[in-house]
Every structure is written in C-alpha cells, then in structure tokens.
Amino acid sequence: MDNKKFFDAMEQDILTANIPEQEKRKLIKNFLHLKKQKINLMITGATGSGKSSTINALFDMEVAKVGVGVDPETMEIAKYELDNLVLWDSPGLGDGKEADNKHAKNIIKKLNERDHNGNLLIDLVLVILDGSTRDLGTSYELINSVIIPNLGEDKQNRILVAINQADVAMKGRYWNYEENIPEEPLKKFLEEKVISVQKRIKEGTGIDVTPIYYSAGFKEEGEEQCRPYNLSKLLYYIIKATPKEKRLSFVENINKDANMWKDNDDLKDYRKGILESFGETVRDCAANGADIGGEIGSIFGSAGKIAGRVVGGVVGGVVGAAKSIGNLIFGSSSYSGGGCYITTAVCEEDNKPDTCYELTQFRKFRDEWLIFQPGGKELIQQYYRTAPKIVEKINMQNNRSEIYANLNKEYLSKCLKYIEHQEYQACKELYSDMMYYLYEESTRW
C-alpha cells in the first residue's frame, strides 16, 4: 500500500480534479466534514470470549493484550484511538457477582454518554460470544439486560453479535486444521448455534440480530499468530453496520497481514462488499450536492487506489491492486467477465486509470480474438485462476515496483506492440511465456 494516507490522497484528488471551482468547493466542504468523523466501536463479551484477540486480528493492535491466564486482562473499559477509529474494549460479565455489577454499570454509563453534539457517543456495539461453550447464560444476560435496553432508539442497527472460537466449538473435532475451515458436521453445529442465539435474543428483547461465527485466532507473547477464519466476514458486517459518513475511519486501520484474511466461508465476496461500503460513503457523502455525475470514479482515483489496496490486497486477497472506489461503484465498461489482473496491477502501479489505453487494448485482444481461438476460453479461465494469486504474492514483495516495471519492459510493452500490429498469435505466445515465468518465480517468493 502507498505510504500516502487515504484522507491526504482524497484531498489531493479533489484539489487536482478537472471540475468547476464551484463544485470543487462543495467537495472540499464535504471532505472536511468526513475527515472529522470518528467511529466509536465498543467491543464486549463474557470473560474468555476473545475480545482482545479479535481486536488484534482486525486492527493489529499489540496494545490489546491477549489474556492467556485465569485472570481477565481487561478490568475496566479501555480506550484505544487509531486516528478516526476509537475502540472501547469493555469487560463483560462472568467475573463474579460484585465485578459483574460494576462492569454492567460501567457499560450502561458509557452507552448513555453523549458527544459534544448531543448524540450518543457509542455508534456500534460488537458483542462476542464464546463458541466453545454451551453455557451462554452470562452472554444473554449481558445482551438482553445490559446492552440492548441502553442502545437508544435504533437498537437493532447498533448491535452486532459474533460467535468466536468456531475452531474449538466441538472441542476441536471436525475442524480441518490444514485448510483452516470447519468440516460439515461442525458447520451444521455452528449454524444451529447461530439460530439458537438469534432466537434467545429475540425472545428476550424483541430485537432481531443475525449472529455470525468466526475464529480470531490468538497470539501469545512471543508466539506466532494463528490464522483466523471468517475475519473478512466480521469486518464486512462491522463496516456495513457503521453509519455511512463514518465508514472511511476504518480504511487506514485494517490489519495489513494478508494471512489474517485468507480463510472465509466465501458465501459472499466480502472484499467487494467492503469496498462498496466505502464507495457509498464517497458517492453519497463526499459528493453530496456536487454536480459531477459519473466523473466521481476518475476524481477519487488516487484515494480509491489506496482503499483498494488495503482491501483488495489484504481482505480476501483476490486482486492485489483493486479498482478505484468510483469505478467499483459506478462500473467499468471494460470489465467483462474478469479483469486483466497482471496488466491491471502493472498499470495501477504507474497510477494509470482502469480505462487507460493499455488495459483497453488487452481487454479487446481477450474479448475479440483470444476467446474465439481453439483452447482460448480455457486459457482465459486458467489465467483467472492463477493470476490473482500471483498478483497477491507480488504485492507482498519488498521490490514489488521493480517486479512490475520489469514485467512491463520485458513482456507487456512488447505484447502491446504485437496487438497494435495485429500479430495476435505472437502476443498470445509472449503473454504465455510471461505467465510461465511468473509461475516459476512465485514458487521462490
């Protein structure tokens, strides 16, 4: 990811945009409002549910120390400020009657606290349940008697419930440790637990919640971090539940370790969903009242690239350098059935837009010639299966810019010349040579 920060890039995009000054002033006004927004996220749950592990996994915060002994690490509500993201790590119940009463009072007090504008301070509460235990009575007491009654008017949209430690929900049975995913008996067990939790909360409060299950992994001091499961899904649900104008607060604080985001249930493209949520903020909040129409994709290209790399290069790891926010939301006419992954990554490394000449020519070559050749369709499908993984590996290399520059010099620029001279077979052969070269190289990365 670029060292340049997201909001800095967003401001620069507006200042250099080729639009009327009147519209530029509107964008700047909206931008300054967005830049001041803070998201206050409370994370709570019964003792041992894995609050600190979850915070560490999502945001790579070593300050959220993981408890590995019998005594809880978090005795009071701890506040962590990460730029515009403010986390409130609250102890739940389960530490004894006296401690529980104290914790409950502290949580209620915080939930009723208001900011300088008179609005409730806490935007969203994430309640974490321990999936390894059948006794969730303490968690239901926390949710039904402490959290939900103190959420104000919009209760249903201000609480998320997540079941952690899915990997040990059946004492470690039916967990595929090699692939880091649940097997069918465990999936069924977890899905039944989700329904049971949903039903108990509905019966106790009248509020509908949709719990998800995941595993945050853990990291004891001096030990290697275990790979989480469904962390992308958890982040997706957090961002979707966040007030629209505050969602961009997450962009710069997502954990950048690609290994943390690899394993998910893949029921949805969470990476795309997260980018779309950011895009809604740009479209509806940053561009509010400005008459720029479909130009939004090109205006926020640089900021979109940074957000795209955070999400595309980490969450899900599908296409290392993702498209800009604007192009993702408003569509790209040149994207048909899949992107030119290697070429896209090379072009974006040079700050070229998705509609640049090079990408347009390569997509035309793919859609108007290659797909109609014998074995062409199969070749394209094989490319789509392997190219994203290669791009992901390249983006993890320290000399990534050098790699992309070399690919452009030795392969892509020559392929483009072949296309321009209608020497399509030569282009196909050289492009295949490049993929073979990259495959061989990637085994050493």
From TrEMBL:
Domain G: 41-163
InterPro entries: CFI_box_CTERM_dom, GTP-bd, P-loop_NTPase
One GO MF term attached to the UniProt entry: GTP binding
Entry protein name: GTP-binding protein EngB
Gene that encodes the chain: engB_2
